[in-house]
Design brief:
Organism: Paracraurococcus ruber
Order of helices and strands: EHEEEEHEEE
Number of helices: 2
Radius of gyration: 15 Å
Strand order of the largest sheet: 1-4-3-2
Distance between the termini: 16 Å
Helix content: 10-25%
Number of domains: 1
Largest sheet: 4 strands, mixed
CATH superfamily: 2,3-Dihydroxybiphenyl 1,2-Dioxygenase, domain 1
CATH class: Alpha Beta
Protein name: DUF4265 domain-containing protein
Structural class: alpha/beta
CATH architecture: Roll
Shape: globular
Length: about 130
């Protein structure tokens, strides 16, 4: 088997806003779409994101441990810009930190079981050739 994609859940009321954010703010391309789900890929990568509708009333209390992660030379600033983008569309947005090199963004009305993480590129330098 080969790794293909990671799937996360979005509240239907904010589904379209998050779908708008990924191509507009990250350059993602829509690969496939159904009534309840969408598959996207960021050019230059080979792992896809799938988002599905979820009307789960209770949000995962530990969702900070489940991330869609990005690399950035300025991770806090990048997430603050995304938070401003979300707020301009009427969404609550919270930015927090795991450390001084790793930060997270939660859109509580949209993200059911994950947050967006941004971290410094050196944190992804594992010293292993794949």
């Amino acid at each position: 088997m080969r790794f293909n994609h990671v799937a996360n859940r979005l509240h239907p009321a904010r589904f379209e806003t998050v779908v708008e954010m990924l191509p507009g703010q990250f350059g993602f391309v829509v690969l496939r779409r159904t009534e309840r789900a969408i598959w996207l890929r960021q050019p230059g990568t080979d792992v896809d994101l799938q988002f599905s509708h979820s009307k789960t009333a209770n949000r995962d209390a530990d969702k900070l441990r489940s991330q869609v992660s990005f690399l950035s030379d300025t991770p806090r600033e990048a997430l603050e810009a995304l938070a401003d983008w979300a707020r301009s569309r009427g969404m609550q947005a919270v930015v927090g930190a795991y450390s001084d090199r790793e930060f997270w963004l939660d859109l509580p009305e949209a993200f059911v079981d994950f947050v967006i993480e941004a971290m410094r590129p050196e944190l992804a330098e594992y010293g292993v050739e794949v």
